[in-house]
Amino acid sequence: MKIKSEDMLDAANEACELLKALGNRHRLLILCQLIDGERSVGQLADFLGIRDSTVSQHLALLRRDKLISGRRDGQTIWYRIDSEPARDIVTALYKTFCATDFTCVNDDLSSATE
């Protein structure tokens, strides 16, 4: 099966946008945390060790690229992954880099949400 050149260009552009978002360490770690479920700005900031406002800036970029979405619950906004391609790539990265030689840090936030 041969893919049309125009379709290939469109797919390449979409892939580049996703990889650009994942190319930032903080945004990659945010998406890694969201693989396991919803997180708030405060939880993500605690995990990353950065200010809430900085996390919010990263979340805004991820929302702009339609990789995540949020839902309001009172004063808290809970964020989740909204993009299946992003979920697939982050899952593949986890399997490659986290599941074998060392453990990615998901335990900290798992206990915070229980």
Describe this structure as you would to a colleague:
- This protein has helices spanning 5-22, 25-34, 41-48, 52-64, 84-97, 107-113; strands at residues 39-40, 68-73, 76-81.
- The chain has 114 residues and is of the alpha+beta class.
- The chain has one domain: Arc Repressor Mutant, subunit A (Orthogonal Bundle).
- A three-stranded antiparallel sheet has the order 1-3-2.
Q: What percentage of the residues does DSSP assign to strands (E)?
A: 5-15%
The value of Rg in angstroms is: 15 Å
Give a quick account of the main beta sheet: strands, pairing sense, barrel closure. 3 strands, antiparallel
Q: Remind me, CATH topology?
A: Arc Repressor Mutant, subunit A
Give the integer mean of the pLDDT values. Answer: 88
Residues in helix, %: 55-70%
Which architecture does the CATH hierarchy give at level 2?
Answer: Orthogonal Bundle
Summing up helix and strand content along with how strands pair, one would put the structural category as alpha+beta
CATH class label: Mainly Alpha
Please report the number of helical segments: 6
SSE pattern, N- to C-terminal? HHEHHEEHH
Task: Identify the CATH homologous superfamily.
Answer: Winged helix-like DNA-binding domain superfamily/Winged helix DNA-binding domain
Quick one: how many beta strands? 3
- Terminal Cα span: 48 Å
Number of domains: 1
